Amino acid sequence: MARVVVDVMLKPEILDPQGRAVMGAFTRLGVTGVSDIRQGKRFEITFDGDVSEAQLTDLHRMAEELLSNPVIETYTLRVEP
Amino acid sequence: MARVVVDVMLKPEILDPQGRAVMGAFTRLGVTGVSDIRQGKRFEITFDGDVSEAQLTDLHRMAEELLSNPVIETYTLRVEP
Fold first, then answer.
1. Banded model confidence at residue B81, pLDDT cuts 50, 70, 90
2. Chain centroid to CA A65: how far?
3. How many domains does the structure of chain B reveal?
4. Which domain CATH number covers B68?
5. Phi and psi dihedrals of B71, rounded to 5?
6. Alpha helices in A6-78 (DSSP H)
7. Which residues in chain A have their CB less than 8 angstroms from residue B39's CB?
8. CA distance A41 to chain B (A)
């Protein structure tokens, strides 16, 4: 059984209103020293067995076409041990 | 400059309609071997300097009270190198 994690975040140059809202709440609640907060999505994809090279290629295609919007987001994909 | 990542996922026993929808799309698009997909949230919190013990304690409080709903979600928090 293998698990692949895909993290999708807004590109740094794209304004992140959700992250801004969380940052505002941190400040109001007295958390100091924070310079930035960004909010994104995390997908945990569990496979029955090991992940083949072909499946990894499929996953990269899905991450780019389905899980993220390449115009405004970037993704990272990793197989977890 | 330090970065703390907080991942928030639904508890395993809670139904995840977003993950289910993604899984349905994977199946329709011909990705095989996937047994489960869960979707959650990822927060990237950047600090001006290093993160102190007091700030970490604050962050755990925020992760539990603000970033997640402990009734249905769990969080993991880690300081990235």
1. confident
2. 14
3. 1
4. 3.30.1280.10
5. -70, -40
6. 17-28, 53-62
7. 41-44
8. 5
DSSP state of A64: I
CB B59, CB B4: distance < 8 Å: yes
Beta strands B73-80 and B34-47, pairing class: unpaired
CA distance A78 to A7: 9
Q: Closest by alpha carbon to A10, among A79, A72, A76, A81?
A: A72
List, for residues B15-53, the tens digit of each pLDDT value.
Answer: 999 999 999 999 999 999 999 999 999 999 999 999 999
Which tens digit of pLDDT belongs to each residue from A11-28? 999 999 999 999 999 999
- Candidates A18, A45, A66: best to mutate against B (most CBs of B within 10 A) is A45
- Expressed as residue numbers, the domain containing A43 is 2-80
| 3-state secondary structure at position B33 | coil
